[in-house]
Here is the input.
Amino acid sequence: MKEINIGKATEFTSPNPLTFICSEKPDGTTNIAPVSFVSYLSFNPPMVGFAMGKAAYTGERVRETGKVIITVPGNSLREAVMSCGSSSGRNTNKVKKFGIKLTEVPGCSIKIPADTKLALVAKLNQTVETGNHYLYICDVEQIYGDESKEAIFAWNGYAEAAPAQKK
Here is the structure.
């Protein structure tokens, strides 16, 4: 074995879970950001956590509103995931710019991509500083799933998005 850096370690653990973090902008529109640092934290009560860089606009929105929907995007969103990761929702409507069709979630003002395999509607419980990221610990309030959708994952250290079974 030889010593490697954390970026290279992410390549060794590919594929990694890939999600869209959906939050609400002040004008009521949906902001989305791709995130792979996601984990289930507890089954009882259901809790999930995700980490984002401290300067992330999406994190700012989650801290301000206390609401988030963590989604697992379907295969049709592969290109959109990569594109959304290269721009900020602070000054860009990524949904419109990248042509992402949205759908409503019962009882929630945040919309999600229509091609979604899993949606975890959550409330922010606490934010923990972790180096150059914040860890968002959330209580899961509702869970929706669609078995007909094919999830995508991050490959090659987050350099590409593809199904778990690369074709």
In short: Helices lie at 6-12, 57-65, 78-84, 94-97. The two ends are 30 Å apart (CA to CA). The chain is about 15% helix and 45% strand.
